Amino acid sequence: MKYVRLYTDSAGESHFEDIEVELTPVDYAPPAPPLNLSPFIPATQFAFMNAPAGWKGDWHPASARSVYFVLSGEWEVSASDDTMRRFTSGSILQVEDTWGKGHASRVIRNGDSLAASIRRAD
Hints:
The structure is a single chain. The protein is mainly β and 122 residues long. It has no helices and twelve strands. The chain has a six-stranded mixed beta sheet, with no helix packed on it. It has a four-stranded antiparallel beta sheet with strand order 6-11-8-9, with no helix packed on it. A two-stranded antiparallel sheet has the order 3-4.
């Protein structure tokens, strides 16, 4: 399984990194058959986030280390190193750029975007 990490380097610039997570067969809910599962990551809060079509956030750091799961709509996120990525339904983005220049983001396409956000505990 893959997701994208957005982080800040020691100079305060934000960058994207592709992360691959190994999924291992686990007896997660016996007597159901095993499921492929990643390691659990401690979390503190969970929320849904709705952004209307055309929403735009100029340069800002992330409010907390969080993982976003795009449920509908499409986002365009720019890192301060001049790279940009698009996130559609089913995309996962972990934001860690809580200081420095941060990132810019906007909802693209014609519809609203719905995402689930989980704040990491670490």
